[in-house]
Amino acid sequence: MKYSKLFGKTIKQDPKDEVSVNAKLLVRAGFIRKEVAGVYNYLPLGFRVLDKINKIVREQMNAAGGQEMLMSALQNRANWEKTGRWESFDALFKVKSRYDFEFTLGPTHEEVLVPIVKQLINSYKDLPLYLYQIQTKFRDEPRAKSGILRGREFIMKDLYSFHADDKDMESYYEVMKKSYKNVFERCGLKAIETEATGGAFSKFSHEYQVLCRSGEDEIIYCEGGDFSSNVEIAQVKEGKQCDLGHGPLKRARAIEVGNIFPLKTRFSDAFGLTFKDKDGKEKPVVMGCYGIGITRVMGTIVEVYHDEKGIIWPESVAPYMVHVVGLDLEERSVMEEAEKMYKLLQAEGIETLFDDRQKMSAGEKFADCDLIGIPYRVVISKKTGEKLEVKKRHEKETKFVTFDKLLKILNF
Amino acid sequence: MKYSKLFGKTIKQDPKDEVSVNAKLLVRAGFIRKEVAGVYNYLPLGFRVLDKINKIVREQMNAAGGQEMLMSALQNRANWEKTGRWESFDALFKVKSRYDFEFTLGPTHEEVLVPIVKQLINSYKDLPLYLYQIQTKFRDEPRAKSGILRGREFIMKDLYSFHADDKDMESYYEVMKKSYKNVFERCGLKAIETEATGGAFSKFSHEYQVLCRSGEDEIIYCEGGDFSSNVEIAQVKEGKQCDLGHGPLKRARAIEVGNIFPLKTRFSDAFGLTFKDKDGKEKPVVMGCYGIGITRVMGTIVEVYHDEKGIIWPESVAPYMVHVVGLDLEERSVMEEAEKMYKLLQAEGIETLFDDRQKMSAGEKFADCDLIGIPYRVVISKKTGEKLEVKKRHEKETKFVTFDKLLKILNF
């Protein structure tokens, strides 16, 4: 993509109506624009990051046997009344049609999916079943000051699992733990599996918490990685020695990027979702649910990976891999050389953003690079010879390498 | 995918609450489930079809220079008031937050995009600009009896183009005509480019109409392909001889699967979207907009391609390319043979659904094949020898071919 054509130019000043680091940087760098508090539009750069995260999540969910589907945002009031959540779920956006309908905008999809599963399964042979979607959710949040970390409209991956008994659910719960570990690692995030409240229906659930000063949650955890608990339910205090000899437990702020939750028969009971076991006996289906906030993952990455100059995207989710910066482009031969490099990289299948703007200082162009945060910067100028000037976003030193060496660095 | 594991089994009887052919077949075949009138959930088979259509649309929009983004469903009331459409657009779902916000659920995105474009462009150098998204839209429709042809919630591709003058807009309008032709052809639809009303702002617009008795629109058209007009604005009558000698004009019902529309300065004026031309003079940006109903395209394909037995998917949008039907699977060697075929096809990159159910008659299995509508059926039974029994969904005769020949038929 040529930067001169890209929709989403950088801004030098922080937007006045944003307080969070993620929103300030993402707006300035041209990834997002606010619609209203808690609701954002994703410009082409932002869309590309979401797309990368979605692909990682899809691969891991498919690998865990998940079948992808797409459920509606408008949800039937009647089903929310059956579970008692029409009144008790306080963040519902309720919507009246002019034609005697009433909906909620879905903040989650148990009320949609369980009635469908009820129509489609009968026997133990139909279980287990793993269904997921990547879809836009809505919650009427009281506060919406955290940029894309806590939205009134946001994208989630939600997977629901259906089992014949607790044991099977618990075993899939462990499979999902591994999937979640893979998803977050691949997105460049160190997410700590953290014990959390199970609510009224389960002893426990697990949250995936990324340490970050701007996080809304607090966890008590062992740096050795064998223990973490949300302070809400922690039985131990900061400073206590870890049982496994990893030293004192720490307390820190964190962002919850995902959670997994044994629903047990909470929703099966509400909708009469049962199956016939091997002996022909009707039994309730046991469920689990597993969420990842896609937009929140994007925001968390920015909160964790940035410096005073801008964003530092991990390669796996970066909107482009290489930022070709053309300098001295007023000289025709230099422009041709820069165009050539842009095309060569594209021909190698490397996603490239080419800053083709003329009459702009190196300083201004490099500032934009640092703000946008693409992993590799390649400079083409009138000084460019056999070797290319390459710099990684998070490293200080510039390297001079041949094109072949550059391709090797980029893992091709 | 093994059919025994697939979420979305067939149903023999038509659903009682559906009148449209598309909804009856898609529900019976396990592609969709109704949430409420005009709102559908897409089960795994349905999701796969949407995904195929989306990919075709994306390829064509990217080829036409479109930059993909993702805008919000919740839209700022203030911007709808600026265009006067908060009151005049009668299908808005208006949503009140508990926190003094008021939104509409977006039925279209001019009110969102134009203010963003205003922030980001200044000069004639920033034009033209082509932005699109594939996103869920909402309209509070009075009637919602046409299945996924007319939804209260539906998926659309909407592209907006921004130009320095009418001429440039008109030239891109012709580019989009070609893109639309490609999209519909690739989806297997014969869409007739049809003159339609331009509303208050333009002399004309164009609709893409697919002939179908269940269509809500009526067009007067020449079978030779040189003329088509929506009856709403047609200056000629059915039966009149075509000027180019193609015989009498016909009148027929049709489904509108897309439309393209010169917006001119309607929204630029409302939001003060201007640019500086070469002489430094402020001028209003000229716009066009271009929509394709993704879910409607899916429904239209079913309306057009079905018979008394079920759906007949075009290869380009079929959920799977091959339906392997195992018979006599109670015999272990036959099950092994069928499994082997399933794996061989998958290894060749051919998307395959494998009906691995035991103790079910050939008749029942073939009926499910015909209902689901996958292009190729391959039967594996105890009678299977060197040659495979292959049948195309829309052909009557069965062929007996080697595996290599089958791969050739499938274009590999």
Please provide a written account of the structure.
- Two copies of one chain form a homodimer.
- Chain A is α+β, with helices and mostly antiparallel strands and 412 residues long.
- Chain A has two domains: 21-307, 2-Layer Sandwich (BirA Bifunctional Protein, domain 2), CATH 3.30.930.10; 320-409, Rossmann fold (3-Layer(aba) Sandwich).
- Helix content of chain A is 29%, strand content 30%.
- Chain A is built from eleven helices and 23 strands.
- In chain A, the strands form six sheets. In chain A, strands 3, 7, 8, 9, 10, 11, 12, 13 and 16 form a nine-stranded mixed beta sheet that branches. Chain A has a five-stranded mixed beta sheet with strand order 20-19-21-22-23, with helices on both faces. In chain A, strands 4-6-5 form a three-stranded antiparallel beta sheet.
- In chain A, a hairpin with a 5-residue loop joins strand 22 (388-392) and strand 23.
- The longest helix of chain A has 21 residues, at 166-186.
- Chain A is elongated and about 80 Å long.
- At the A-B interface, strand 1, strand 2, helix 2, strand 3 and strand 4 of A face strand 1, strand 2, helix 2, strand 3 and strand 4 of B.
Characteristic key phrases:
homodimer; 412 residues; alpha+beta; BirA Bifunctional Protein, domain 2; Rossmann fold; 2 domains; nine-stranded mixed sheet; five-stranded mixed sheet; 11 helices; 23 strands; 30% strand
Short description:
The structure is a homodimer of 412-residue chains. With 412 residues, chain A is α+β, with helices and mostly antiparallel strands.
- The helix/strand class of chain A is alpha+beta
Which CATH C-level class of the largest domain in chain A is it? Alpha Beta
Please report the distance between the alpha carbons of the first and last residues of chain A.
20 Å
Query: What is the multimeric organization of the chains shown?
Result: homodimer
Reported for the largest beta sheet of chain A, the result is: 9 strands, mixed
By CATH, the topology of the largest domain in chain A is: BirA Bifunctional Protein, domain 2
Largest interface (CB within 8 Å) is between:
A-B, 55 and 55 residues
